[in-house]
Structure formats: C-alpha cells, structure tokens
Design brief:
This protein has 500 residues and is of the alpha+beta class. It is 20% helix and 33% strand. The chain contains 11 helices and 25 strands. The protein is elongated, with a radius of gyration of 33 Å.
C-alpha cells in the first residue's frame, strides 16, 4: 500500500522524455531579470526565463549552465518543461532519465480527477488556472545522479545535492511567481483521500457506509452524489500516523468490499478525527486527521453521509439490525469470513462437534463478532443432534475465539416461550423433540426446519427470516398453523451468562 512519506531523493515515476524536444525557447539573456521573486534565486542571482505556450520557468544563472531545460511542444503527457543535469546525461550517454531533476506538466480536470483516484507518487498537483487546467510537478522516484566513476561521484555530490534541493524547495513557488495567471492548488493523495476520490469521480466504485449500530447502505452506481461529503472530508486535510491504541465504542464505517478495505471513523469524544484503516482482513493503521478549520469533525461528516444515504435510499436505519449493533444476515448463508473465523475459534472446543449451518448476523467491534447457528453432537457414537447459537469473535489481527454458546432445547423453548441456555441432559431435548431437516412443512420466510415432536399430529420448529423461531402444528390431514413465535435475539445470545 502507498505511504504518504516522501523522501527527497526517492520520489516518483518517470515521465517519458522521448517526446521532449531539445530546443529551449530563451526569452531573457544572461542579464538580470526583474520578474518574479528574486529571493527564490540562489543568493538573489539573476536567472534565465524559458517559455512554453505562454508560461515561464526561471532557471537561476548559477544553475542554468549545469542543466538542460527542454520545452516540448504539444507533448501527449502535457509536459511543458523538463529539466535534467547535463553532466549526468553526458556520463550516461544521453540515456533517457539520467540526471532528470523535475518536469512541469499541464493537465485538464478529467486527468486531474484520474490522478486523485490513484497513487500519485512522483507527481504533485500544485497550481491551477482560470481555464480549468491543473499543473503538476513531476519528480523521479530514484536517484538519477550518474558519473563515470566513484571519484567523480564523490567530487560532484555537493553539486547534485544543491540542484535537487533547489528543484524540490524552490521551483514550484518560483513558477507561481513568474506566472501571475496561476493560483496555488493542493490535493492530498493518502490512501483515505484516494478512496474518497474514487467515490466522487468513479461512479462504478462499490462502496458502503454503515455504523456499528446500523447496517451498511450501498448506493447503486451513480444514484447518489457523494461529492459534497468527499470535498468536506478532504478540504484542508492533514494526516499523521497515530501511534496510540484505537478507542473503544462506536464508529462509522466506509467500506470498499471489492478491495477488502475499510475506514473506521471513531465517535468517542475527542476521537472524532481518528480513523482506522483495515485492509486484507488483517492489516491496520491509525490516522489522526486535522483540518485548517478546527471545527471540522470527520465522524460527524460521515454520520451525515450515512443519514443522507438512508433518506435517499428510503432505508429505515433500524432495518436488518437488532439491539447492540448487530446486523442480521439476509439469507443465513455462511460467508467465507465467518467460516474461517469459526474454524480458528473451534479448535479449542473439545467433546462436541459443531457445524455452522446459518450465519445469523455480524457485529463490528474492534474486529468482528459472528453469530452462527450450528448443528451440534457429542463426540460419541450415535450421539443425538441438537442446535446451538455460537458467538465467535475475530480480532483485527485475525485471532479468533468462541465468546458464547447457547444450546437450543426446542422442547424447553416451546414450553416456556423463551430461549434459555440448556445443558440438554443426556444430550436429549425435552418433550421428545428431535432435531431434523424435514422440508415438507411450508411456511413463509422459512430458512431451516430445526426439529419436530410427534403428538396427535406433529409439532415443528422452523427458523424464519428476521431470526424468529416459529412453532407450527400440523394435524393428521396436513393442515398447519403457527402456534407460537419466539424471537432469536442474537444480541442477548452473544452475552455470556454471569457466574453465580
């Protein structure tokens, strides 16, 4: 993943110089020139002005004889000026890229948006004009200093250092000073800013916004204008690595499932500008956001974004959730992530075999909780099968553990009307209930048939969407009716029983 630290002599990708012409358009000779800010020149020296398409670049006289300044015409990459050290070019036999110090290019707004959506290493957007053009300072990612031998390298190292220092520290400000029609422009390119730019400028990007209390909302391509929220989150933004621990509590999540990447914006007081990036399911980094406007709170903007999405999508924030911030699974399908977490956690379970048959829900914490309905049976011959709700926690580092197990005694639930953890004496459910997968009972929103009891007819227990247990009586003629409904509250079932 790209990191925001930029090292002067190890910066970004090379713009091809093959399109560059070698003739420099000199607009001022060696005499002193009064345009621009002479304080930007070494010791106030005069400079030479090079011009291309109405734009000027000043090269200090002390450096002009040391560098080759090219002004290509109609370059495909928009390059206006490209500056290289002559001695390195000569030592390398004019090999492309040798001695290259920097280039200045001009791009349109579409190209600027494309840049913001990707890694901009070696390219810095630094200026704009009134015609919708943007100006890029291009610099190499590796050292282009070349000499014939080590002695020459040592001899000329100080000269090279001065050139690179001038290129990095003075050229952009000098270019703005010489071209009054330009105004400064600054755009960040951290991972967060790149992902936000993709939402704003690439309508096909797949993203969602959720909270730890309510489930994710994912707008269809182009159906929601996120640009106002992106601009507020990135305007005047400065990012720094945060070396402390992530706070507890709720947060707003901006997720990109196709890239397995998400950003958690914390809600805790004093942490509203703290963001955790999680990628590939196991890597994480904490970032401290600060803004030129001290009143800006990133988490507040993300909450507004979520609320606007809910309104635009006509979504009820509580739909698909239970108390405690659990998001219910829509169809019960056991995901690969849930199965992987369960596999790691269940290694510590002895004496009983558990097999996940339905994912009931997930909860984002500092990691993820999974609520799984499992078939269970003691590790003994012909042991009866029963069901249990198993809660598994997986940390951001990928470590997993079983947090709670609630055995479902269908007979006890049918009699009491509530779910109470049962020890299942001798592995058998009360009231002659037995676990089975009978599919002959048809009931709306049914997901799984969990068990039955023979009476004068048959009682059935069926797990239905929204995670409720429906008890159904089927008479001898095959007619059915729901006799009782018991909610399967996975938030409550995830909490370990208090020790007596």
């Amino acid at each position: 993943m790209k990191r925001t630290t930029v090292i002067l002599l190890a910066v970004c990708m090379l713009f091809a110089l093959t399109a560059c012409g070698s003739g420099a358009a000199l607009s001022a000779s060696g005499e002193n020139v009064t345009v621009g800010d002479t304080a930007l020149r070494p010791e106030g020296e005069a400079g030479k002005l090079y011009e291309n398409d109405g734009l000027k670049l000043m090269i200090p006289l002390a450096y002009d004889e040391l560098v080759l300044t090219e002004t290509p015409k109609d370059a495909k990459d928009g390059m206006l000026f490209s500056v290289s050290e002559r001695a390195s070019l000569e030592a390398a036999g004019d090999k492309d890229g040798a001695g290259w110090l920097f280039g200045i290019s001009r791009i349109d707004e579409d190209a600027m948006h494309e840049m913001l959506c990707n890694d901009m290493s070696g390219r810095e957007l630094f200026a704009a004009d009134a015609d919708g053009h943007y100006y890029v300072f291009n610099h190499p990612t590796d050292v282009r200093f070349v000499r014939e031998n080590n002695e020459a390298m040592a001899r000329d190292q100080e000269q090279w250092n001065k050139l690179t220092e001038w290129a990095w520290e003075s050229v952009r400000a000098g270019f703005l000073a010489e071209n009054a029609q330009l105004s400064p422009a600054s755009f960040g390119n951290s991972e967060l800013e790149m992902y936000l730019a993709r939402i704003a400028y690439q309508p096909e990007v797949n993203y969602s916004v959720s909270t730890t209390q309510y489930g994710p909302l994912a707008p269809e391509s182009g159906s929601f204008d996120a640009l106002p929220y992106v601009e507020r989150l990135t305007s005047g933004l400065i990012l720094d690595r945060f070396e402390g621990e992530a706070p507890d509590g709720e947060y707003v999540v901006l997720a990109f499932p196709d890239e397995e990447t998400r950003f958690d914006f914390f809600k805790a007081e004093g942490s509203e500008n703290l963001v955790r990036m999680v990628w590939n399911g196991e890597n994480e980094a904490l970032w401290q956001l600060s803004y030129t406007d001290p009143d800006v709170k990133a988490t507040g903007i993300m909450q507004e974004w979520y609320d606007a999405l809910a309104e635009a999508m006509d979504a009820q924030p509580s739909a698909g959730t239970t108390l405690g911030g659990w998001r219910l699974s829509e169809d019960g399908a056991v995901t690969e992530e849930a199965l992987s977490a369960f596999g790691k956690a269940s290694e510590a379970l002895l004496g009983v075999n558990y097999t996940p048959v339905a994912l009931l829900g997930t909860q984002l914490v500092n990691g993820t909780n999974y609520s799984l309905l499992c078939e269970a049976a003691a590790v003994t011959p012909n042991a009866p099968v029963y069901y249990a709700v198993v809660t598994v926690y997986e940390s951001l580092a990928g470590e997993a553990e079983v947090r709670n197990i609630v055995v479902l005694d269908l007979g006890d639930i049918a009699e009491s009307g509530e779910i109470r953890n049962s020890d299942l004496p001798e592995g058998k459910m009360l009231g002659s209930w037995k676990a089975d997968r009978d599919t002959s009972v048809e009931i709306e929103d049914a997901v799984l048939h969990l068990g039955s009891q023979l009476v004068s007819g048959t009682n059935h227990c069926v797990l239905c969407r929204g995670w409720v247990l429906n008890f159904v009586y089927e008479d001898l003629e095959g007619k059915t009716e729901i006799t009782q409904t018991v909610p399967l509250d996975i938030a409550a079932l995830s909490q370990p029983a208090e020790a007596e």
